[in-house]
Structure formats: structure tokens, C-alpha cells
Amino acid sequence: MSKNKFNLKLPPGSIEQTNDHDNHTGTDTPQRKASTGATGSFGAMSLESLLKCIQELDMDDTQRRRMEIFLVQKQKIGELNADDFEKLGELGAGNGGVVNKERHKPSGLIMARKLIHLEVKPAVRNQIIRELKV
């Protein structure tokens, strides 16, 4: 039995292969700085400074353009909270959480939202939070 009960598939080109497999060191590369922001969160940096960081990254034009489009869209949506979503249905569930189909009320955008079941153990919770920040 497959966990993909609706047989959902990603469109072509949505996942790109990169040759940067061994660039996962603990140092702050431009990629790490751009993904976490200078202070560790996206909201603390301006759009202009993020676009400048993108120019420094080793990406081709297609990747750079897609990243710029994402950042502009992210700025339009702003911070997300639970009240901004309307649940349309459940897409799947597993040991780690539930994925729901939801509508973002302000924009009307339909998306998948994963709700992660956090264990009460502080060590496990802290590990999950650390992994989400990366």
C-alpha cells in the first residue's frame, strides 16, 4: 500500500539535480547564508539584500530566476499563521505527521501543509527544530 493514495506527482523540472553533493560542511557558505538569512530567519533580511546574496551564489540563470521569483512571492504573502488557512482535506499521514490540502485565505493559493507531531521529549523536539532551521 502506497502512502501516495492520490497518486500525486511533481511537474517536470520541479526537482533539479545538482553536482554539489559534498558541499555540506558546517561553514557558512553563501547558500547557507541565503537560506537562513544573516540572522537565521528570512523575515529579518530585506528583499534587496537577499537578491544581492542570490547574485553571489553559484547558480545558473534558471535557478537564479526561480529563486528571485520565490523571494518576491514570499514577500507578498508575508508571515503565515494558522488562521490564514482553510483545511480542504487530508492528503496523507505517517508516523511523523499529517499532510493536509489547504487554501491560503488571503491569496487563494491551494497548497500542501505538513503538521509535524512533536514528541514531548525536549531532546527530540530540539533536534526537529534544529533540522527545520537548516
TrEMBL record:
Keyword line: ATP-binding, Kinase, Nucleotide-binding, Serine/threonine-protein kinase, Transferase, Tyrosine-protein kinase
Top-rank lineage group of the source organism: Eukaryota
Molecular functions per Gene Ontology: ATP binding; protein serine/threonine kinase activity; protein serine/threonine/tyrosine kinase activity; protein tyrosine kinase activity
SUPFAM superfamilies, A to Z: Protein kinase-like (PK-like)
Disordered: region residues: 1-40
InterPro entries found in the cross-reference section: Kinase-like_dom_sf, MAP_kinase_kinase
Protein name, as recorded: MAP kinse-ERK kinase
Origin species: Cherax quadricarinatus (Australian red claw crayfish)
